[in-house]
Design goal:
Residues 13-158 form the Zinc finger ZPR1-type domain. By secondary structure, this protein is of the alpha+beta class. Helix content is 16%, strand content 41%. The chain is built from three helices and twelve strands.
Length: 172
């Protein structure tokens, strides 16, 4: 049986929003069976309510590609961890999201990933794109979710998910 998260950092800082010294920063080290050790950050301001949450890897593994074909509503409830370093591709929906410097890792369901995508790319997506994502969220469009993770930390918790090595190439 695994232990719960352990506090590895705890401090009161100046809030980046309201500038008062009421920003409680707490980081936990959590050992997970699929992703290894993760740092879970839960920071919040007691004055203005601003929150910052993040999940980052504590260690790296072999680069990998994970694919899963989403064919029904039950597949949408599959648990997924997308590390901050993983690229998400959904070819059938024309979605490709590269990791960026401020990317955050998250644990969600596949349906939740589609919600996150809709929230983040909604302004860059026309009505047809938005409707296709909504139909996929309702299980009315079959699609393939692909995670490419250079640090090998992401996972999809399903027997249907396939994992293979990610071959990194130098672009120099």
């Amino acid at each position: 049986m695994s232990e719960g998260p352990k506090v590895i950092f705890e401090e009161t800082l100046v809030c980046p929003v309201c500038k008062s010294k009421t920003f409680k920063a707490i980081d936990y080290l959590y050992d997970t069976p699929h992703a290894g050790k993760l740092i879970l950050s839960n920071w919040y301001c007691e004055n203005c309510g601003y929150r910052f949450r993040d999940v980052k890897p504590y260690e790296a593994r072999e680069p990998k590609v994970i694919e899963m074909r989403i064919e029904n509503e039950n597949d949408l409830r599959t648990i997924i961890y997308r590390s901050a370093f993983a690229k998400i591709t959904i070819p059938e929906l024309g979605i490709e999201i590269e990791p960026a410097g401020m990317s955050q890792g998250y644990i969600s369901t596949i349906e939740g990933v589609l919600e996150i995508i809709l929230d983040k790319v909604g302004d860059f997506c026309d009505k047809e794109c938005e409707n296709r994502i909504r139909l996929a969220m309702e299980g009315k469009i079959k699609f393939t979710l692909v995670l490419e993770d250079e640090l090998g930390l992401s996972f999809i918790k399903s027997e249907k998910a396939t994992v293979k090595p990610l071959i990194l190439t130098n672009s120099d």
